[in-house]
Amino acid sequence: GENVEQHPSTLSVQEGDSAVIKCTYSDSASNYFPWYKQELGKRPQLIIDIRSNVGEKKDQRIAVTLNKTAKHFSLHITETQPEDSAVYFCAASTPGQNFVFGPGTRLSVLP
Amino acid sequence: NAGVTQTPKFQVLKTGQSMTLQCAQDMNHEYMSWYRQDPGMGLRLIHYSVGAGITDQGEVPNGYNVSRSTTEDFPLRLLSAAPSQTSVYFCASSKAGTWGTGELFFGEGSRLTVL
């Protein structure tokens, strides 16, 4: 079955700097890769996703890149702000299958 | 729309007690699921349902039971609570035709402590 690894487990950056979180997956059939953000005490919410027919996707300050050959994908956050502090989860799936989530990355943006 | 609603938000149980976590969605979503969240382990799937009358096991189903008699409701039953079931539980749903390919909408979570 699918296995998703995520690094780092914790990340601290200065406000205004960039943050990068990396995930690797094991099942080459996986073709959908979402990222969820979970603020403290809140529910996870989708912030961006990418499908296997696309190499990169951007939405304002966040972007996701996918390398199908190496089976890894990354979340990039530029110009970080205090409200970016949260736990971020990556996931992988295929149509008709359940998501497999990574263990999460706790991002702290320091003022 | 209220989205995905979970009750209760907090619950303390003694070992051996049983209880039901309620989950309801008003978005007419076909797919519903239950996850547990433990520190450093991400979100692990307990049970899921692809439609009314259909349920299946996920990664960590032992000690839990589910049913799906209506499209809207997907309760999770703990049959005989154990300390290992202390966790935060999330219910999630998604639209028809998006199983594994579209957004999961999560409830607010239920924090369960088993003493």
Q: Please count the beta strands of chain A (DSSP E, at least 2 residues each).
A: 11
The level of helicity of chain B is: under 10%
| Beta strand count of chain B | 11
**Discrete helix count of chain B:** 0
Shape of chain A: globular
Order of helices and strands of chain A: EEEEEEEEEEE
How would you characterize the overall build of this protein?
The complex is a heterodimer of chains A (111) and B (115). Chain A is mainly β and 111 residues long. Chain A has strands spanning 4-7, 10-14, 19-25, 32-38, 45-51, 56-59, 62-67, 72-77, 86-92, 100-101, 105-110. In chain A, strands 2, 4, 5, 9, 10 and 11 form a six-stranded mixed β-sheet that branches. In chain A, strand 7 (62-67) and strand 8 form a beta hairpin. Chain A starts with a strand and ends with a strand. The relative contact order of chain A is 0.35. With 115 residues, chain B is mainly β. Helix content of chain B is 0%, strand content 49%. In chain B, the strands form two sheets. In chain B, strands 2, 4, 5, 6, 9, 10 and 11 form a seven-stranded mixed β-sheet that branches. A four-stranded antiparallel β-sheet of chain B has the order 1-3-8-7, with no helix packed on it. In chain B, strand 5 (43-51) and strand 6 (54-57) form a beta hairpin. Chains A and B meet through strand 4 and strand 5 of A and strand 5 of B.
Question: How is the topology of this model organized?
Answer:
The complex is a heterodimer of chains A (111) and B (115).
Chain A: E1 4-7, E2 10-14, E3 19-25, E4 32-38, E5 45-51, E6 56-59, E7 62-67, E8 72-77, E9 86-92, E10 100-101, E11 105-110
Parallel strand pairs in A: 2-11
Antiparallel strand pairs in A: 1-3, 3-8, 4-5, 4-9, 6-7, 7-8, 9-10, 9-11
Chain B: E1 4-7, E2 10-13, E3 19-25, E4 31-37, E5 43-51, E6 54-57, E7 64-66, E8 76-78, E9 87-94, E10 105-106, E11 110-114
Parallel strand pairs in B: 2-11
Antiparallel strand pairs in B: 1-3, 3-8, 4-5, 4-9, 5-6, 7-8, 9-10, 9-11
